[in-house]
Each structure stands twice: as C-alpha cells, then as structure tokens.
Write a structure and sequence with these properties.
CATH superfamily of chain A: MetI-like
Largest sheet of chain B: none
CATH class of chain A: Mainly Alpha
Low-confidence stretches of chain A: none
CATH topology of chain A: MetI-like fold
CATH superfamily of the largest domain in chain B: MetI-like
Low-confidence stretches of chain B: 263-267
Structural class of chain A: mainly alpha
Helix content of chain B: over 70%
Largest interface: A-B, 91 and 95 residues
Number of helices of chain A: 13
Helix content of chain A: over 70%
Mean pLDDT of chain B: 89
Structural class of chain B: mainly alpha
Radius of gyration of chain B: 22 Å
Largest sheet of chain A: 2 strands, antiparallel
Shape of chain B: globular
CATH architecture of chain A: Orthogonal Bundle
CATH architecture of the largest domain in chain B: Orthogonal Bundle
Distance between the termini of chain A: 31 Å
Strand content of chain B: under 5%
Strand order of the largest sheet of chain A: 1-2
Number of strands of chain A: 2
Strand content of chain A: under 5%
Number of helices of chain B: 14
Shape of chain A: globular
Order of helices and strands of chain A: HEEHHHHHHHHHHHH
Oligomer: heterodimer
Mean pLDDT of chain A: 88
Chain lengths: 284, 267
C-alpha cells in the first residue's frame, strides 16, 4: 500500500483528535504565555490584560544581563564537556558486542529518565559533609576532615554534565552506529593506529553531527531548572531557574513569561541551526 | 594494546561517574537512624517500608503512578493516529502536527510548564488533577510519536499491499496486519512515557503542585524542609523501576533499533 493523498475530508479524520489536542493544549498555552508576557502585573500577584513592554524592558538591567550571560556560558561549558566525554564513549559503545551494548543503553536510559529532583538530591548527598566522598578520602588518609563541596559552581557543573551525558550519547548514537565501517578498515590498512584513525577519520566524518550535538546539548542544558538551585548559590542561577522562581515564588507571571519567550527564541534559533546543519549533511 | 587498556579505564571511570551518586543514595537509604550518613550506620530497610506505610509518601507514590499510567495512555492515543496518518497518507501540510508533537520535548521544559500554567490559570481549571494528565501527555507525546513512526516505517509495504489487493479495507488492514507489527513500538512508546512522566517535576509542579503531591514534588519539598532517608529509598525505588522497564524493553524488543540504529546494520 503506497502513501496516497487523502481523497476527501473523511480521510483526514484520524488527525482530527491529535491535531486538536496539540492545538488546544500546546499552541494555545504557548499563545497564552506570549500574551501574558505583555500583561501588566498587579500588586498581590495577579495580572491584568494590557499591552506593555515593561516586562521586556527589564532585560536591559545589568542583573538580567549577568543571568543571561551566565546561563549561556554554563550551557556552553556543559555541552562541550559532554560532547568531548561522550564522543569516544559512543564510538566504543557503537562497536561493542550486542549484549554489553544493550546493557549500557539500559543504564544510560535509566539515568536519563531520572528526575532533576533526584539527580540534585543524589549529588547534594554525594558532595555533602556527612555522607559525601570527602568521608571516603578521609578514611583513605588523603584528607584531614570531611567537608561539604556544595554549594559551588563545580557541583552545578558536575551534576549538569551528569544529567546531559546520557542525552549526548543517545543523540550521537545513531550517527555513530551508521558510520561506514569500511572507513576505519581503510584507515587501518593504510597503517593508522586506532587513535589516529579515530581523530583523522571518525572525527572529520562526523563534523556536522558533532556541531549539531553540541547545539542540542546546549539547549538541553539551558533547560536545567533545579540543579543550579539545589547545588549552587543564587549567583549560579540560570534563566530557567529565574523563570521558575518568578512564576512560582514571586508570582510575577508577566515577567516570567517574557523571559520564557526569550528562552524560546534563543532555543528555536539554535534548533533551526541544527536542522539546517542536518539537512546539509543529508544532502552531501 | 595500550589503547585497549586506556579504553577499559575510560569506560570504567564513566561507569563509576554514572553510578557513584546512586550508590551513595542507596547506601544512605539503609541507615538505621534518621541521618544522612555514608557509609551507612547499621542496616535497616524500614525507610523502604516507610514509602508504603507513611500516608504522605504512599499518596505521593499513588499520585505519580496514576499520573504516569493515564498520561502515557493519552500520549499514545494522540500519537498513534498521527503516526499512522503520516505513514498511510501523503499530505505535506499535516507534517506541521508532527513538528508540533516534537516541539515540547526539544524546547526547555520550563517553557511548556509556564505555557500550561498560564493556560490552566486563564481557563480556570488550574490545580485540578486531570490537567496534569493532559499536560504530561502533550509534553511527552514526542516519545510514542517517534517510536510509532519508526515502527510504521519498518513495516514492509508489500505485505499491506497484498492484504489490500485481496480486498481488505483500511480498518481491516490496520487491525489484522498493521497492529500485530506495531504493538512492540506501541508498548515501548507507552513505557518510555510512563517512566519519564513518573520522574517529571516542573510541569507537574506548575500545573498541580499546590493540590497534588507527586513523588518528585514530595522529594523536592522534603529536600527543602530537611532530610529524611525516605527520599533516598524513594529514589532507589524509582531507579530500580526505570531500569526494570528499560530492561524489559531491551529483553523483548530491539533497543538499539528503537534508539536509532538502523536494522540493516544490526545483522
């Protein structure tokens, strides 16, 4: 049965329900959020319909500039660290026999599915004074007394890499599995060591995939909303944390919405860039 | 040879990195007293029992399980006709819906969460339990959409063609030929959504956080107001559940294929 163009209105029936669901519960909320970003905030946490730019004007403050700059830098650091860590790993993974490969995939999926709450809690425990790794270092005689390693930027960074690493591997996985094995064989026949083959053949062949993965992981890391809050100081808060904070604790929905709109634009621009890179790769 | 040893060490370090926080949490969860200590002092499984005996934790567990069960079902119900239509019909403009289905998953989750919060607040349903089910279903619809699209693309069209030349109608073909082939993908899509919904925090929190406590919300609230080892035991329970579900998918399905490795190269 080939794909056929719908013959009449009745043939469109199957997409009525999913279409409506997505329009009503995704597009409409999205629109509501954009509308609220232009509303005026009232005293007491409510807002009235209006068309003001004051919520967007707040972006011009140095405080907001710092938060935005920090969020982007943090996400860039996480993305680069994750891709650097995950590339050789995913390459090895894609060449493993089936059994260990599937075991690794199950482990990665399990970590990936973990709630940010759980990741934050687990790392805050691991880095705490009473139950943390410093206790192990003390018992090995490497340290004098256990101490807390949270809150700190290092803790935020480590936990975010932990969170994004399985995602990075799974984004890269299809491209690496499909990588032409004859490329490596050719390199080997021509006398390249495995490391040489990896850096001179695999990495260049995957250049576009790598760039696309960095962007995907960057957007993923931008979305981290709890880890900077649980493991960092207020100065380590990112745009996502600030949005949550404004919406829930300061009940300033218009400002939260305006920031969310900015985050959407930033993410969409980057995702658009990724799909352009992807298209180029397919065309090549 | 050296490269192989280095590779082993590299894999080992990564495995430790991934497992370390979970091992510590597992250790903390068996502490005998209510203390945050590792290595644990004494051994007790009472904190695991606490999840089921303490009404607050039990309710949170039930809320999470209920939310995951229903939202995953709804997500599949939305994704299935869309994926089927995309496979059966050639109608380029309807691709916009596939795109809409993937969007919430690609964008940072706070955005979808805030959008839904303003939407439910505006429509006056804010805080009702069922709004979380719809919210999660829409947020995670990407997962069954991807697995089902993959499933449909793997169906040999000539088999379907044969059935239809023999006079079978669309509905019959769907029921007798397509369904049996697609069920594994349907189950995987459901399972992925179930596990992720179970763990999801921000959307549940922004839509029903003030009226319903799911387990992640409960853990976060407990984290803010001090420490109880039940947080650790609940965490271990969740990890075990995720590993079990993905393990089952791997056991009965083709996990590498589901994650994008094409069948041809699998051998």
């Amino acid at each position: 049965m080939k794909q056929e163009a719908p013959q009449g209105v009745a043939d469109y029936a199957p997409i009525v329900f999913p279409g409506l669901m997505l329009l009503v519960f995704f597009v409409l909320p999205f629109g509501t959020m954009i509308a609220v970003s232009f509303f005026r905030r009232d005293q007491g946490g409510f807002y009235t319909p209006d068309f003001v730019f004051s919520n967007y004007e707040r972006f011009l403050s140095p405080f907001f500039g710092n938060v935005l700059g920090f969020s982007i830098l943090l996400a860039v650091a996480v993305a680069i660290a994750c891709v650097a860590l995950a590339l050789p790993f995913t390459f090895t993974l894609s060449r493993m026999p089936r059994r260990p490969q599937v075991l690794w995939l199950v482990a990665l999926l399990s970590v990936l599915s973990l709630s940010e709450v759980i990741i934050g809690f687990a790392w805050s425990t691991l880095l705490s004074r009473t139950a943390g790794i410093t206790n192990i270092l003390v018992s090995m005689g490497l340290m004098d007394a256990p101490r807390a390693l949270v809150p700190s930027l290092g803790a935020v960074l480590t936990a975010m890499i932990y969170q994004a690493f399985p995602y990075t591997v799974l984004v890269m996985y299809p491209a690496l599995v499909r990588l032409d094995p004859t490329l490596l064989e050719a390199a080997k026949t021509l006398g390249a060591s495995p490391l040489q083959a990896f850096f001179n053949v695999v990495v260049p062949a995957l250049r576009n995939t790598l760039v696309a993965t960095v962007i995907m992981v960057f957007v993923f890391a931008l979305g981290s909303y709890l880890l900077p809050q649980i493991l960092g100081r207020p100065s380590h808060w990112t745009l996502s944390v600030l949005i949550t904070d404004q919406a829930v604790y300061q009940s300033n929905m218009p400002f939260a919405s305006a920031m969310a709109v900015l985050l959407v634009l930033l993410s969409l621009a980057l995702v658009g860039l990724t799909s352009m890179i992807g298209r180029k790769e397919n065309a090549a | 040879m050296i490269a192989r040893v280095l590779n082993r060490i590299y894999l080992g370090v990564l495995a430790i990195f991934l497992a370390a926080p979970l091992i510590i949490v597992a250790g903390v969860s068996v502490n005998e007293k209510q203390s945050l200590e590792f290595p644990p002092h004494g051994f007790s499984l009472s904190w695991y029992l606490e999840i089921f005996t303490n009404a607050e934790w039990r309710n949170a567990l039930w809320a999470s399980l209920g939310l995951a069960t229903f939202s995953a079902a709804l997500a599949v119900a939305v994704a299935f006709p869309l994926a089927w239509f995309g496979w059966r019909r050639f109608a380029p403009w309807t691709r916009i819906f596939q795109l809409l289905g993937v969007a919430p998953f690609v964008l940072p989750p706070v955005i979808t969460a805030l959008g839904l919060l303003t939407f439910w607040a505006t429509t006056g349903f804010y805080g009702q339990a069922w709004t979380a089910i719809i919210s999660h279903a829409i947020f995670f619809v990407t997962l069954p959409l991807v697995t089902l699209t993959l499933g449909f693309s793997s169906i040999d069209r000539s088999v379907v063609e044969a059935a239809s030349t023999m006079g079978a109608k669309d509905g019959t073909v769907l029921r007798t030929v397509v369904m049996p082939l697609i069920v594994p993908y349907l189950i995987s899509g459901y399972a992925f959504t179930f596990v992720l919904s179970l763990n999801e925090y921000i959307i549940a929190y922004m839509t029903v956080g003030f009226t319903v406590e799911t387990l992640p919300i409960k853990i976060f609230n407990a984290l803010r107001y001090g420490y109880t080892p039940t947080m650790a035991s609940a965490t271990v329970l969740f990890i075990a559940l995720a590993a079990l579900v993905f393990g089952l998918i791997a056991r009965f399905g083709d996990l590498p294929r589901l994650l994008g490795a094409s069948a041809a190269e699998e051998g």
